Amino acid sequence: MTESLRILHLSDTHLYGDGRLHNGIVDTLAGLDRVLARAATLAEVDVVVASGDLSDDGTADSYRRLKGTLEPWAAERGAAIVYAMGNHDLRDGFEEVLGARESVTHVHGFRVVTVDTSVPGAGYGQVFEEQLDRLREVLAEPSENGTVVVLHHPPVPPTTVLFEPLRLVDPEPLLEVCSAGDVRLILAGHFHHGLVTEAGPAGIPVVVAPAVANTTDVLWPPPRERAVRGAGFAWVQVPAEGPVRAHLLTAPSPDDGETVYDLDADAIQRIADDAGWRG
Q1: CATH number, domain 4-275
Q2: Side-chain half-sphere of 131: how many Cα atoms within 13 Å?
Q3: SS3 assignment for the chain
């Protein structure tokens, strides 16, 4: 048995069924191809995790594009593949092509569990009591090498102003359930930039993958929010024992760094009013 779980962690592919450009600028399918070409240099991959906002239009065709790209790549390496729902994903298309919105996958003595943090019609995330009950039930029996939880909205505070109203609402109960079980790692996306931190009473490592679609400029001064061209991924190793290691990597392109959008305070407020948490 392998001594570690080697994860290719992707997020925020934002594909369209008709192949249109994201924000009218970015060819996200080409970005995914570039990420996979870069990730092909990894020696071994045990599981490919795609942590939400897989589609931008929620169509079955967009998920077919994703599946037709990711699954042959994973199959060549004998890797499992895990899909999680994001706020841009739509349930019908996701379930038709990719399967259940919440799943449990066993790989080399590790357990990978998805939690659907999406709220239909909203940009923020939430985990409801019935989902917590399900997770408690899953975690009631420890896995041999521990559990990895995959969700879209990170259970940690956002770095930039746009994501404050689009955050995971009340993450503490989720983190308490994870801390009471054998959860060794939480993988997330949503922020469109890489982040490695800890959360919850047990200090569980949290790895937020860079987005495939574009990159949030975390140094852009508030109250503005900027994203630039750039695609990336996380390479994560979870040993049977000992600390998690995560590397945040890019898949370079000549136009990296060009502005995709630059939002002022009024534009951010409109997004918050339309899709943000109002509690």
Answers
A1: 3.60.21.10
A2: 21
A3: CCCEEEEEEECCCCECCCCCCECCCECHHHHHHHHHHHHCCCCCCCEEEEECCCECCCCHHHHHHHHHHHHHHHHHCCCEEEEECCCCCCHHHHHHHHCCCCCEEEECCEEEEECCCECCCCCCECCCHHHHHHHHHHHCCCCCCCEEEECCCCCCCCCCHHHCCCCECCCHHHHHHHHHCCEEEEEECCCCCCEEEEECCCCEEEEECCCCCCEECCCCCCCCEEEECCCEEEEEEEECCCCCEEEEEECCCCCCCCEEEEECHHHHHHHHHHHCCCC
pLDDT band at 2 (very low <50, low <70, confident <90, very high): low
pTM greater than 0.85 (yes/no): yes
Q: What is the pLDDT of residues 145-165, one digit of tens each?
A: 999 999 999 999 999 999 999
Which of 70, 73, 118 has the alpha carbon at shortest distance from 97?
Answer: 70
- What are the pLDDT digits (tens) for 80-126? 999 999 999 999 999 999 999 999 999 999 999 999 999 999 999 99
> Cβ-count burial of 140 within 10 angstroms (0-12 exposed, 13-18 middle, 19+ buried)?
exposed
Tens-digit pLDDT profile for residues 235-271 = 999 999 999 999 999 999 999 999 999 999 999 999 9
